Amino acid sequence: MAARIENVVTHGTFSLDGGTWEVDNNVWIVGDDTECVVIDAAHDADAILAAIGERTLKAVLLTHAHDDHIDAVAAVRAATGAPVLLHEADRMLWDEVYPDTAPSSGFADGQVIPVAGIELGVLHTPGHSPGAVCFTAPALGTVFSGDTLFNGGPGATGRSYSDFPTIIESITAKLLTLPADTVVRTGHGDSTTIGAEAPHLEEWIARGH
């Protein structure tokens, strides 16, 4: 029962700074036939729970706390009892969605989370938000990048709590140092690889986003 990656695409809205946009989100499930973790519980708890099935959900791991990545957390947590992990630096964003509840615990840079016989490594990658993290899965040749790195460049930094020089530093120091064939599984849109994105770093810096 080797660990595998599953993808559920969900649809909903993202709201921040007085604006609201329709978005499709990638929900990633990492596990085997008996246990798994969910990376970002977005929009559609029923679809996420259906994908989990009868497996034990060990944790909901959040790449950051923008509402489109956490709006199904309460329902998934209620149905499974799974702990919810979020970097403490994003707590203000969480509190806008869930003012009366708290995540189960935070993340530390370099933390290792075991699931289904493999390890997910936590990389603190601020910029898109202060508490943004990515999860490496070396055994699966993958990094789950949330909204830090996309197919085509960095995540957005034009809204509250974001900063472009910070996200560039995070991507340069934490992501572009991964093996070139590492598959980048993103929070929205198509996957890419570190090798496909790395040559464009100077272009991103020049354009400023």
Automatic annotation (TrEMBL):
What are the alphabetically sorted keywords of the record? Hydrolase
Q: Which InterPro entries match?
A: MBL_Glyoxalase_II, Metallo-B-lactamas, RibonucZ/Hydroxyglut_hydro
**Where does the source fall among the domains of life?**
Bacteria
Any one Pfam family match given in the protein's UniProt record, by short name: Lactamase_B
Does S-adenosyl-L-methionine appear among the keywords?
Answer: no
For this protein, what is any one GO molecular function term? hydrolase activity
Domain Metallo-beta-lactamase stretches: 24-188
**What name has this protein been given in UniProt?**
Zn-dependent hydrolase
